[in-house]
Amino acid sequence: MAFLLALRINGKVFSSLRKPLAAVLRTVSDTVKDYHLPKEGERGDRSALGFEEEWLDPSLSLEELLDHFWERFSHASDDPMVTGFFFLGMR
């Protein structure tokens, strides 16, 4: 929005860019809305927002979050050769 407001100073440039920029902003808005819709294959009506609420709970300590994860995925591997992820000093 700040960019569009700054462009108002130059009427010619603003006129040529306002429609393409509006299309970009509309696409961004649609993408954000789509992010929160239930996705195919999800259990129930869960959305990406539901995933965030379960796994990014700021009230949980790191230990509580790990316990929650291991309860849910008791057979998950923490071997970096399996997961492809390695964080020094962390499981």
Structure description:
This protein is mainly α and 91 residues long. The protein has one domain (2-76). It contains 5 helices and no strands. The chain has helices spanning 2-7, 11-35, 48-55, 62-72, 80-83. The radius of gyration is 22 Å and the shape is elongated. The two termini are 43 Å apart.
Topology:
Blueprint: H1 2-7, H2 11-35, H3 48-55, H4 62-72, H5 80-83
Oligomer: single chain
Structural class: mainly alpha
Q: Give the low-pLDDT segments.
A: none
Largest sheet: none
Q: How many domain regions?
A: 1
What's the helix count? 5
- The portion of residues assigned to helices is 55-70%
Q: How widely separated are the two ends? A: 43 Å
Chain-averaged pLDDT: 79
Element order: H for helix, E for strand: HHHHH
Number of strand elements: 0
Q: What best-fitting shape do the alpha-carbon axes yield?
A: elongated
Beta fraction of the residues? under 5%
Radius of gyration over all CA atoms, rounded: 22 Å
